[in-house]
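The material for today's practical consists of a large collection of protein records. A record pairs a protein's sequence with a compact description of its fold. Instead of coordinates, the fold is spelled out as a row of discrete tokens. We will come back to this pairing of sequence and fold again and again. Here is such a record, shown just as it appears in the course material.
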Amino acid sequence: MKSKLKNLFHGWYVAMGCCLIYFFVNSMTIFVPQTLFPRLMEEFSVNEAEISLTVARTLLFAAIFSPISGILIDKYGAVTVL
């Protein structure tokens, strides 16, 4: 029994944990602002279109800079870029 546990690769647990963390962080970025829209509209006296632009700009920014950051990470390494 000990030999089976000794040969077990634990990297898959780390990878699965990272995927779960990414799932929760990414879902908060996408779904939480919509729940705050009524309060933000009241606070800043804006309509739905103006407040929706905040999410659109965030996603556009991510779409533009994700490939650029990927190229930089491939070239210089993740630690250097971060």
User: Anything to note?
Assistant: The chain has one domain: 2-81. The mean pLDDT is 85. The chain is about 90% helix and 0% strand.
